[in-house]
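Write out the 3D structure for:
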Amino acid sequence: MVFTLHRYIFRELFKVFVPTAIALTLILSLGIVLRPMQEYGVGPRQVVSLMGYFLPVTLTFVLPIAALFAGALAYGRLANDNEIDACKASGISLATLIYPGLALAIAIAIANLLLSFHVTPAFVHRAEESFKADARQILFRNVQRRGYYKPPGSKTLIYADHADMHNNLLAGVVAIETRDGTIGRINTAETAKVLFDLSEERNEVQITAYNTYQMVSDDDLWFHIPFISLRPEFGPLMRDDIRFKRINDMKEIQADLMRFGPVATLARQLYAQFTAELVAQDIAAGIAHDANESYELLGEPNSVRFTARRSYMQEDGSVELTGGVVLAEYDTKSKRHLRTLRGAEATLYIEGNEFPPVMTIDIYNAQDRDTGDLVMRHIVHGLIPPKKIADKPRTGSILEDIRPQAISSALASGPGSKLSSLQNALQRAIHLTLVQIKAEIHSRLVFGVGCVPMILIGIGLGVIKRGGHLLSAFAASCVPAAVLIVCLMSGYEMTRNVSAKAVSGVAVMWAGFALLSVLVVVIYHRLLRR
């Protein structure tokens, strides 16, 4: 008899739970994909696939709400129709009648924990792979529709008059590179070939532009270059967000922070800048010893030797060479001399954040000694720092090599302004990453196990408010659910706050769960005493 009764109650619960879950899932799924549709210009086919990939994200929030609604309405109807009273008169206790609702609550809690810790991160990563696979179509569609495109997370804005997706060509191209919120370099080209280099950790748009003119914001002159290759890089869209990491991934990041993209990127930038300042220090030491002694940087395909009277670091992290700079360029493999340029100044800077770092030298208003021609600007890419500098850190770990103590001991005059800024940014990123992992783990746990008291409260209020409107029980049970969510959000932000203690944020999260548990005890103590 009890089994038949439980089966009947389960049927009543699922009659409300299933359609509610389906309706909420459709509504929230459409809301989630609106942003990619507007921002990235994804097409109808991608929208359908994205809805499938983001389904676990939606279900994480939909299942508890649908179960709460089903519990309040199903048990409220049973109480309103005096079916619960009839069961109690037959000797069946209220606790026995609650078993189906408790089973549903536990099932939802387990499903929620599995979704949040394992399923959702896996599907989000698949969504990103799907997006990357359609990156070419998205770029050309945005150029055709809006006239420009900005790769997500990139500092390059690409304008074009015409886009030929079939041949991967853009015509009438203007590429604007930004640095710290300001325009850094402007490139214009008649045509550009666009290819994508997409991998697990690295995403690049390869733009080979022909008949190009280039201007740096600090200059007022345009330089003609036969062709130029731009490689604006954009990071993973969601993979580098702790909120979409599996529990195993978070544990691996805690063990090795270089596994987390934002930290690894900052660490490589810091290492590159550290290398630049070591090179600047080495050049300055050589100049102090003998101003006529040349400094050599090997590269691929060309290498350089140069002399300068003065060398100093600039605020942007580059090395400024002044005082009669003489630059000799030669082919690395054949050692064949290519040209010798003499100019008033040159700039040596790190090219990107590759590891190991690669440098570029840029000489302005130089004269070619062999031909006597005036060269407004000449750039040599792909230069490698000297071996004595590249081999200086030997710990085998980038984070160990760029510790503040290691940097201070290696740089006689201390770190420059940009290096110090990167040090502070890296320390902050490491701290935020560790506390966010802690906050994410506890918030998922609290929300998952919190489903049980939340649904039980809805069932209890459904029975208590038997004489009122059925929806009033659901409305009343939403208040404790809202309290739990507020505690989760407040505790999460407190944990991420640099000035606050992480322990206090975690305590606030679990305080919400404890409050709901106390409320469950109070409600069912009242019901069982009737």
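Residues 242 and 433 are 8 Å apart (CA to CA).
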